[in-house]
Amino acid sequence: MNTPPSPSGAEHTDGSSVRLGALVPLTRPGWVEAGRHLLAGLDLAVREVNDAGGIDDRPLELVVRDTAADPERAAAAVDELAHLGVAAVVGEYHSVVARAAAARADALGVPFLCSSAVLDTLTEEPTEWVARLAPAQSYGWRIYADFLLRAGRRRIAVATQPSVYWASGTRVLRDHLAPRGGTVLELDATPTPEALCDALVDHGATALLLLVGHPEPAVPIVRAVRGDRRLADILIGAPAGQPEFAEWAAALGEDGAGIPFLRYLPERLGPLGERVGKELRERLGEAPSFVAFEGWDTVAVVAAVLRSHGTDRAAIAEAWPCVAVEGTRRPIQFFRAPGISVWQWAWTPIQVVDRDPAEPDRFRILHAG
Length: 369
Hints:
Helix 1 (32-51) crosses helix 9 (271-284), helix 4 (137-150) packs across helix 5 (164-177) and helix 6 (193-203) crosses helix 7 (218-226). This protein has eleven helices and 16 strands. The radius of gyration is 20 Å and the shape is globular. The protein is α/β, with parallel strands linked by helices. The chain has helices at 32-51, 71-84, 95-108, 137-150, 164-177, 193-203, 218-226, 246-252, 271-284, 290-309, 313-318; strands spanning 18-24, 60-66, 88-91, 112-114, 130-132, 155-160, 183-188, 207-211, 235-237, 261-263, 325-326, 331-332, 334-335, 343-345, 351-356, 359-368.
């Protein structure tokens, strides 16, 4: 498994450092841009921990492994990191990959703080070893469904691909919309975009949600729908957050604006969030996504646990319900949320936003949960 050098400083081989494993998608087919933002947040926070004296005068060392959106690769990385003696594992963006990592961490008795993945069932059974910062899919996507209803969109088509994540999202939308007068029609995203447009017209859909990968097939679908005069009034949505990143705007330009998605940020950041956001912008050379803030908050939580409970893995896992950390977006504590098998931050701020058609580099807040 190819691994980039630790971005947080030189590798320590004499046991002097406290090692923290990090799972990040850094190569295709992983969402590389999301991985870059996540790693920027993780690395910035590690550097700040070390600038403040580390963990009991020992440096915190980030040991990065590229998952490339591959569940088997992620599980193998957890095995390797456990063998290297990491105190805990953090990170991962892709939900299906995070689920594989969580299952392996649970089996090995390695604490895992998941930064970004939202799939409700990260583990099949309740576990003490895994905690999560991102909101559960059932929570965030219900907020998105409420936005659709408020916007008067009740005939919802979803262009979807085979995946536990997309299937789970479709189920959340259908269960929430059906009792409120909404319908959800599943359309296979594999035929041509033109065939998809014909199906949208035939079914009288008022919204199309992209439950598909990026850039393929999301980008060709958006172009086809935008170019079809019959669909001039349809709302295109992307609850999974594809339009968050600059890569989306670069690929689609004006066609990529006006597509609402979920973003996990408050309406206004406090002083800590503003400071961290400025640092992240300098590192990334662009506005940080919410994923970068998730990375910073992840390390802030783990560092606080390491300082208060030590580096023993069992002690770290026992500390999840004791966490009380000032995060970049609001104070962080973990709870047992109904139907969620891991320790959950309940809840991070959630917005439905889009890129302003008049200024695609600017985001508009359309709804808040």
